[in-house]
Request: fold
Amino acid sequence: MDIQKSDNKIWPLGLIISTVVLYFGSFKWLLTSWLTLDAYSHGFLIPIISFFLIWQKRDILSGADDQKSPMLFILGLIIYVVGQFTGAIFLTTVSMIPFLLGLVLLFKGAQQMRVLIFPVCFLIFAIPLPDLDGIMLTLQGISTVLATGISHLLGVESSHDGCQILMNGAIFEVAPACSGFNSIVSLFTVVTLLAYLIPDPLTDKVILLIATLPLAIFTNGLRIAITLLVASNFGVEAGMRYFHDWGGITFFVIALVSIFILLEVLRWIRKISTKP
Reply:
């Protein structure tokens, strides 16, 4: 009995030490990214949330079963080695997810590993995506076209050229910070956590996640279009002041509220469909 208690204390310690040693470079990269990239400034919160979710399952994790396997651990090491040899820090860092789950599967078993799948995989939201410049450029183009179209519906005469919107002789540059990427990452993070916590069917959760991307893109385009509307009526300075002071947080809240409205609609549809 004493040996079992000792093992229960040693394996988490070994997991922590091995992870820190192998992924020290990744941790440095993550820390720098969280401090310098606005889209990932929330990165500090993700490990805390993951740890809290794991802590809630600590009673389940204290046991062990016979369904142990080294395969996932080996997969994590393979991805890690490929990332090291290719210099792909993103790949090296992502390998931490199968590495951690693989260690649990190897030493504790499949039941404990399944409990940790979401908390560990949730760490992906703290890891910056590769080719951020390309992603932002694509989103800039989409936001520019969308904002121009919405502004026409609002009665604002405008046109676009690349990532620039032309209106009454003024030029509005849809910069990377205006691409909506920050809102997309934040919204996906929140909605994914919401989908994990709510007791609704898997289909409803999938619908929420699918709706997140177009909803975030649309609200960002609407934000830019309303900036053009304010600028056309009250001047460019007023439009930019609106855009920077409270436009971002307002439309993020609108997008988040829309997700909750969609959730309630799905629940209502499910409720009436089950009535005799």
About this structure: Confidence is low (pLDDT under 50) at residues 1-6. The two ends are 55 Å apart (CA to CA).
